[in-house]
Amino acid sequence: MSLKHSLEWARSNLEIFIVAFVMAMLIRCFCIEVFKIPSGSMEPTLHGDMANGDRIIANKFGLYFHQTKRFDVILFKYPLNKSTNFIKRVVGLPDEELLIHGGDLYSKPTGRDKFTITRKRLDTQQAMWIPAYEWDGAEGVFRDEWDVANYGDKFAVRDGRLSFTNSELSYRRNVRDHYPDGRGGRNIVPDIKLAARFRMPEAGAELKLSLNTVNGGFTLFLRTGENSLAEYKTSTPPTSQSFILNKVNVKEAKDHLVECMNFDGMICVLLDGREIFRHSYMEDFDDVTRFFDNKISIGANAKEVTLWDLRILRDVYYSGDYDYRSVFKEDKPVFIPKNKYVVFGDNVPNSKDSRLWTKKIITLKDGRVIECDPEPRFFNDDQAAGLLRIQRIEAENRGGDIWGLTYEIKYADIVDIKEENSIFVDKDEIFGCGIMVYWPPKRVKIIN
Fold first, then answer.
1. Is residue 221, in this structure, part of any structural domain at all?
2. Burial code of 179-188, b = ≥16 C-beta within 10 A, e = fewer?
3. pLDDT digits over 49-86, tens only?
4. Who is most buried in 127, 162, 229, 274, counting CB within 10 A?
5. Which among 3, 278, 316 is positioned nearest to 132, based on CA atoms?
6. Residue 171: beta bridge partners?
7. Is residue 193 included in any domain, yes or no?
8. Domain tally for the chain?
9. Contact 423, 373 (CB under 8 A)
10. Closest Cα to residue 227, out of 253, 202, 245?
């Protein structure tokens, strides 16, 4: 190859490389980018670990055309350290008051008179359920966890499946806000999902599922044929509503999956993955009554029903009571200013989010003002040495002042130190929205 041809080849390949590099940078800056989840603050939606956390794809381009919505999973610059990226779920929107009550969120936009419940989309809710109970198929374990009326020869467990007739099964425990790391457990969670696979071998069989809500009791009657029924009985006033489920066809001698869900003031039922019933029983905060217990039960009539894969799951229980520093207390509304958002982690007691963000503001004699995260491992107050150290932990990409810078300040140079709440994410600090988990393979999914 001649020198001329070599130069032309090199120039051509250099042009391709430069164009590819520029395109990659443009895509990364304005379209999509990949991130690793380092902590467990967003479980169960996203699993985190410094070494093996979920890898996600974030959409940046969509922010130019779509307004950030409630319950979006967003990426943003951490308000206490803008060199660090955080990922949380949006729960509060600009120009509204946000209130926590009984694990649910209520909002009142400017100009409205009442707080209304904030309701998640079904696909978002399905992503947020936390396992609370799963039957392993053992009869002894089942009898320890459920009260069974009228059992005997009408109640049997064979090969991990429960067969019963003329029986009422009542779950003995209340579903509480327990978390895998041992936190929580004090609060009864009203928003739950009861799911099971079932089979009714003959005509005339009926499966009954009952749940308790913050405003009454719900019972679902699934019958072979096309005459299934849903009933909701409100607490105040004591009236019942019955709904004929005309589009339901529970076939004899066929396996079915039922998912009965109570969340955000609404009942939703899926049969074999298809929605067959939806009923909103509560909108306004004024409609909420005191919640005492879950009252979960399963029943069958005189015809045999076989049940397996029985699970109870619970919703995220929002609370500020896990930490005394939380700005969000039960039934205490917080106003969100224009262009600001409130974000919480799905792993509520193990998430440093809008509930807990405060910042130290240090004014120096030379006129400088330094703002930083007051967490002790970043904010070292060494009074014996007369020094204030603002430290950064590079391994975690955390700490320092809000720009990630480290300081060692003499007390003699300080005019004032104060601490104030910094609970909002500014609109301009949001740079992406999570769209999917792409790694590890068993975790691949759309982020809802």
1. yes
2. beeeebeebb
3. 766 789 998 888 767 678 899 999 999 999 999 988 99
4. 162
5. 316
6. 146
7. yes
8. 1
9. no
10. 245
Query: Which residue range(s) make up the domain with 266?
Result: 130-314
The string of pLDDT tens digits covering residues 387-423 is 999 999 888 788 899 999 999 999 899 999 999 999 9
Q: Which CATH number do you get for residue 290?
A: 2.60.120.200
> What distance lies between CA 445 and its chain's CA centroid?
15
Residue 87 domain-assigned (yes or no): no
Residue 35 CB partners (closer than 8 Å, separation 6+): 55, 56, 58, 75, 85, 87
Residue 414, domain member (yes or no) = no
For Cα atoms 156, 159, 164, give the angle at the middle one, nearest 5 degrees: 25
The answer to whether 409 and 362 have CB atoms below 8 angstroms apart is yes
Nearest to 76 by CA among 399, 430, 314, 363: 430
Residues 237, 294 contacting (CB under 8 angstroms):
no
The Cα 187–Cα 176 span in angstroms is 5
Burial class (CB in 10 A: 0-12, 13-18, 19+), 189: buried
Distances from the Cα of 235 to the Cα of 4, 35, 92, 212, 284, angstroms: 89, 47, 29, 10, 15
Query: 226-241 as b/e, with b when 16 or more CB fall inside 10 Å?
Result: eebbbebbbbeeeeee
**DSSP summary character for residue 318:** B
Is the separation of the CB atoms in 265 and 277 below 8 Å? no
Cα dihedral sign, 136-196-299-290: positive
